User: Which sequence fits this backbone?
């Protein structure tokens, strides 16, 4: 599943198209055009609203958490990559293409999504910013929180690993990077938020920033490709490494499910707090 670094990489792919005028919109599979990010239902008027992009000039795309926004004059798009969605710039229509936008320099960007959990939502440009932020906490990458700020946002008896995935506390933290950040911060995933002290919050704040920038580097190097393409090299420190030796201390990595999500940690250097 794309996490924040992949979504940001998609945004960066679209940036060079800013300033170019849309000359055509293609809809090879309109089922991914939805009336809102939060619904799975098809948007009956979506095709017509997408066609309105023709003639408009693209702005620089924006991102909040795992949501993308892109405005074109008075019109706009929201996008969520779901499980397998991504944007691709290609002359020929790629397999599983849902939506394509051709620009005045001849380039076409396609929204491709084999498993169809992602979507594109046509909205008025004026609504893009609010729709991107609705229900989300500060962006984990663009608005890094201090330890004290994190502590204030995570006042809950819930386990830190589970709470880190609450997008209304911190937008963009996904399962893999939460697991990796906790390892970096030497924190056991089951630690209750209320049991973390100031030092632990500071360590976690730094670890989240380090981890997300590391994730961006991995994506830039195509190191997370295995997540979607079945390549076997695991680029992570603890994620997916149950039973292997901890790369930091040699302890045996544990893997268990927490709140339905795979969770990994080293019991030796991420000890459970009393
Ligand atoms: Zn360890």
Assistant:
């Amino acid at each position: 599943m794309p996490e924040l670094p992949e979504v940001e990489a998609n945004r960066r792919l679209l940036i060079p198209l800013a300033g170019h005028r849309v000359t055509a919109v293609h809809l090879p599979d309109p089922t991914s055009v939805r009336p809102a990010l939060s619904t799975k239902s098809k948007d009956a008027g979506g095709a017509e609203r997408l066609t309105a992009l023709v003639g408009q000039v693209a702005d620089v795309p924006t991102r909040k958490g795992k949501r993308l926004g892109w405005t074109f004059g008075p019109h706009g798009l929201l996008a969520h990559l779901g499980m397998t969605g991504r944007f691709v710039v290609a002359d020929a229509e790629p397999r599983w293409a849902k939506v394509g936008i051709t620009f005045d320099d001849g380039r076409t960007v396609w929204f491709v999504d084999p498993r169809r959990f992602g979507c594109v939502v046509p909205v008025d440009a004026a609504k893009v910013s609010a729709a991107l932020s609705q229900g989300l906490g500060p962006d984990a990458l663009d608005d890094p929180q201090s330890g004290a700020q994190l502590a204030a946002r995570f006042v809950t008896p819930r386990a830190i690993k589970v709470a880190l995935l609450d997008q209304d506390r911190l937008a963009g933290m996904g399962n893999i990077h939460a697991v990796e950040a906790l390892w970096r911060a030497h924190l056991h995933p089951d630690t209750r938020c209320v049991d973390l002290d100031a030092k632990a919050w500071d360590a976690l704040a730094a670890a989240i920033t380090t981890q997300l920038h590391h994730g961006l580097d991995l994506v830039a190097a195509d190191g997370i490709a295995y997540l979607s393409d079945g390549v076997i090299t695991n680029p992570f420190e603890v994620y997916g490494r149950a039973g292997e030796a901890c790369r930091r201390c040699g302890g045996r990595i544990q893997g268990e499910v927490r709140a339905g999500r795979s969770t990994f940690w080293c019991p030796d250097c991420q000890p459970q707090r009393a």
Helices lie at 4-14, 46-51, 125-133, 147-153, 160-163, 175-184, 198-220, 226-229.
